Structure to design on (258 residues):
C-alpha cells in the first residue's frame, strides 16, 4: 500500500519516534509516512547527510536529524539517548538500519566481514531496543518495529547468507522481546520486505540477479519503498494493531507465502 500525505490514522500525531537508518530507501519512505501523520521524529543516518537533509526540509517541524555510525562502540546507546533527549522521551523505535555490506560467500568471508554484518544488522537492533526500553516504559508503553527481510526465511540470495542469518536473528529477537516487554505495554513487531527497489539493491544486486528474483514474484515486479510504509504505520498505531505483538508482516508481492 502506498501511503499518501492525506491518509490520516489519527493516533500517531505527536508520537515521539526514533528511526535508525532513515535517510534512504525504506527508512526514508517510512520517515515521510510518519511525518505526514504528524509524528515527531529523530531520523538517524550515517553517511547520507544530503539525503537526510532533503527529508528534513520537507517536514522541518517534524524531523530532527541525528548522525551516528552504529558500528562504533557505544554509538547505538548514544543515538537512542540523544533521540530521547531531543524528543523529551520516546513512544516508538523503528530499527531500520542495515546493509548487506557486499555479496560475499560464507566460505570467502573474513572474520572482520562477519563481525561487520552481524554488528550492523543484528547487534545494533538488540542494543537499540535495550537502550530504548526504559524510555518506552517510562512513557507508559509504546512500540518497537524491526526491519527484517525475506532473507530471514529463505536464506538469502547469492553472497547474502550472513545478512540472511543476521535478519533471522532480528526476527527471533522480535518474537522474544515481544514476550519480554509485554508487561511494560511495549509491543514488538517486524516488517520483512522482499525485493524492494532501494539503493541497497542498486549497489549490491547485479541486474541479472534482480531479473531472476523478480521472475519469482507473483505480482511480477519488485516493490517500491513506499509500498512498505503501510505495514509500519499499521504496527505503530495502537488503534489498528493494539492486540498485535511478536508478529512479522511479510511485504514481498507474494514471493514468499509462509
Amino acid at each position: 500500500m502506498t501511503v499518501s500525505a492525506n491518509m490520516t490514522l489519527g493516533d500517531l500525531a505527536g508520537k515521539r519516534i526514533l528511526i535508525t537508518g532513515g535517510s534512504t530507501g525504506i527508512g526514508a519512505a517510512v520517515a515521510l509516512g510518519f511525518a505526514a501523520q504528524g509524528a515527531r521524529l529523530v531520523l538517524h543516518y550515517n553517511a547520507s547527510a544530503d539525503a537526510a537533509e532533503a527529508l528534513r526540509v520537507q517536514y522541518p517541524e517534524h524531523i530532527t536529524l541525528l548522525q551516528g555510525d552504529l558500528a562504533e562502540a557505544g554509538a547505538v546507546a548514544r543515538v537512542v539517548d540523544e533521540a530521547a533527549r531531543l524528543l523529551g522521551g520516546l513512544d516508538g523505535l523503528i530499527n531500520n538500519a542495515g546493509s548487506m555490506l557486499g555479496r560475499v560467500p560464507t566460505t570467502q568471508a573474513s572474520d572482520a566481514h562477519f563481525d561487520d554484518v552481524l554488528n550492523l544488522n543484528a547487534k545494533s537492533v538488540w542494543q537499540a531496543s535495550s537502550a530504548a526500553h526504559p524510555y518506552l516504559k517510562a512513557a507508559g508503553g509504546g512500540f518497537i518495529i524491526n526491519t527484517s527481510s525475506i532473507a530471514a526465511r529463505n536464506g538469502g540470495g547469492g553472497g547474502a547468507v550472513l545478512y540472511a542469518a543476521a535478519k533471522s536473528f532480528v526476527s527471533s529477537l522480535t518474537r522474544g522481546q515481544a514476550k519480554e516487554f509485554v508487561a511494560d505495554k511495549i509491543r514488538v513487531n517486524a516488517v520483512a520486505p522482499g525485493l524492494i527497489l532501494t539503493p541497497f539493491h542498486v549497489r549490491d544486486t547485479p541486474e541479472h540477479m534482480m531479473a531472476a528474483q523478480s521472475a519469482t514474484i507473483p505480482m511480477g515486479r519488485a516493490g517500491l519503498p513506499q509500498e512498505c510504509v503501510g505495514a509500519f504505520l499499521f504496527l505503530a498505531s495502537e488503534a489498528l494493531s493494539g492486540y498485535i505483538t511478536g508478529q512479522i508482516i511479510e511485504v514481498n508481492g507474494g514471493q514468499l507465502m509462509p
In short: The mean pLDDT is 94. Residues 137 and 184 are 6 Å apart (CA to CA). The longest strand covers residues 186-193. Residues 16-248 form a domain with the Rossmann fold fold (CATH 3.40.50.720).
